[in-house]
Amino acid sequence: MTIPLQSRRKKPRAPSSGPLTDLEARVSPRWWDEIFDELYLKTDGDVVENAELTRREIDLFLELLPLARDAKVLDLCCGQGRHSLELAKRGFANVAGIDRSAFLLQQARLRAQAAGLPVRFHQADARALPVDDERFDAALVLGNSFGYFERASDDELMLREIYRTLCASGKVLLDVSDGAHVRKHFEPRSWEWIAEDMFTCRERALSAAGDQLITREMTTHVERGVVADRFYAERLYDRLEMEALLTRSGFAVLQGPAQFASTSTRNQDLGMMAQRLIFIAQKRPG
User: How much is the pLDDT for 277?
Assistant: First the structure.
């Protein structure tokens, strides 16, 4: 029997490497432009597509930062809009989401349209926000969406952009990984099933300077083989470092950080989302 040529062809495997001794050398300076796609919603879906966790997070955030229903709220690095949409479901009518990923923003807009929720979504770099005349009462940076840039000075630039977009008494809520906890307890190697036919293996190491966690994330399909071999780096901040950065950026930290532990529908590898610190800071007069 002759097998048709089309059925003999296999989908090409993703470019990948074997064992590496230096993960940091493989991280692209703009890695965040490459990985926030459909696969990300699977590899991190146990957290970022977890509706119950999103509701719990918003419950806590609104307890720490009470907001009027007519408050103007900026959800920065909003991803597929899970927090923006949850706020809109609760009656917040002036929510805007900004993110870099065109794919995730498309998902956010589709979900907002399907649910009939009036959230505005815009694509932009967090260091140069497309906000001129409008001023927000509160800015939210949630789900450990901070510390992605190659230089620490760009983290400060992002906070100064948030400062610029806030009204005179505006506040920021910053939800970041507990850097001190990560340094002590990160898993050098882990793996988890992300679907019935797909699993992800992760390698982690501290950067040479000790201020970033470098992650290699290799995803494999049981029939097609490796579908992605990705590298990314996230800067680690402990409580004192984060408070100092907020202060330098023009904010007054209002209270000691609250702690929050994520949950997962898979209950396997939570990575940097496992233990988080939540800071509330208010804009100081310029």
Answer: 94
